[in-house]
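Re: folding output
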Amino acid sequence: METNNNYIKKEFTITAYSENHIGLLNRITIIFTRRHVNIESLTVSASAIEGIHKFTIVVYETEDKVKKILYANVLLHPDIKIPSSETGTRHQAAERTAKQFNALTLAISEKSKIVTVYYKDEKMRLSSLSELFTKAREALKALEKNKEMLDMFIRKLNVSESLELVTLDDLLVIFQRKNIIDNIAKTLSIYLSELGKEGEFIDVQLKEITSSVEREIELIIKDYSEHFNFEGIIRELNTLDYESLLEKERLFKIFSNYKKKEGALVPKGYRILRNIPILTEENIMALINEFSSLRNLVLASEEDFTKIKGIGEKKAKAIKEYLLKIPI
């Protein structure tokens, strides 16, 4: 088996030249220690240039880790012919380097307290923690408000299903709101990626909301899969911006284009049955296969339910009682 010499520890001697300012030795030490590299010896001597000192550092480490330290402390000199929209020297160098090498670069301005990340032709200014928290909380508040609206539409769907009066609008507004929630969640995720560990609590709330929405939508798709090609609907909805999502006529057209058959919109009953805790996934599948629709489930008797494998008297009673009082 071949051994990669880049990952074998050996002795390296690193030479650096600089003016000997107060605190410089401490800064050099930090460069190594924060990467968990121990300095075997460090000597300082005068160089051939007046005012410039020579720093000789000996370490016992892998070549790969030593190279990373050296690369991290190289002054960048990218091609100045590459266009830059920045004015500061540091930011210009970072932007040009990102474009020239298709690399991720970071520029920090101590004076203006601005941190900018560059990657290829893209750039993003990082906000301060206080700014990020404000934006994240506002996004979370908007997310919660839209989740409440979605819950309201789902309750309306419950009523329509119990009365056998489901319309295209009942489904359309749910998927419209779901996509708006997705867009807000994407924006919030960007803020959380910048916050890191500081945003863990908000991240938990985000995941609770989005997982709840995804679960509800998944069941609605199962209920109405015989009526619509939801794969096509979702694909087209995902191409719309916020303004387009608010255009109901456009959404009606999308749903109409992917409608599989005409007639009354009758759910299979997945979503309603999932709300009965005593039922397992196997129970739900067996009931759907036998009765095929929510309408037939509502009309069935307890005795009819007990004929299904895995459904005893206790479960049959729970199903019937729940279907008689579908939450409105």
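--- second protein (sequence, then structure) ---
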Amino acid sequence: MSPIIAERNIGQNVPHHRRSDAQVGVPSGGIMADGMPRVAAIPANFPPGGYYCIQPPIITVQLAENAWLQDNECIDGISAQEHGLSAVVQASSSLRLRRAVQQIAHYFHRELQYDFLQYCAVEDGRDVDHRAYLWTDDYPYDDKGSLEVLGACCFRLRDYKEVGERYALQWVWIHPYKRRGGFLKKAWPYFEKRFPGFVVETPLSPAMRKFLVYNTSYNDLLISVGAPPLLDSDTPSGRSNSSPLPNPK
């Protein structure tokens, strides 16, 4: 069972047509990002290397530590950093942190072959409530405190007709070399404290479904709101048991 997967958690499956990244996932608008025009900030976030290259973004120990000054690092004795999370990223975070999340979102987008990005470093201020999280290597690789980013995930605040307003985990991506390392399992108790009753948006891969069934109490939440519990695989009829909650309003 693989708890760490490249997971697509919202929207419809759209075949990838090898369009350039410049053609997809770029919201319209013209704002400034840390003094950089939006039209310049977006290309600056494209991953380095060719289409099949995975090169971890780089942040620093200082950036990671300072990120927690803007959010709740410890809730009811549950520390985010002690649960493996290196940094929290939000709309007001450093552009370098937001770029790191977008670069991971690019790898997610390429691996899952969808035509739009799940995260843009410059989002026109439309979602100030979102929270993304970064996983990094344990130790800096130079005397500048540089850390390689190994994965990211993102929560957004949603409003469901049946269950009201609550956060939703939209996507998770971990570097292939670090999957099956228990990153998500370790962070889960913090996420449950930080976002009580959060939803995991669909569709779910088989690996993510198994993770939720066997490593979390997510089925208890679904049952409590009148939704069918998740199975650890597709139903015998061939219909995927992956949409327990309706789409947000």
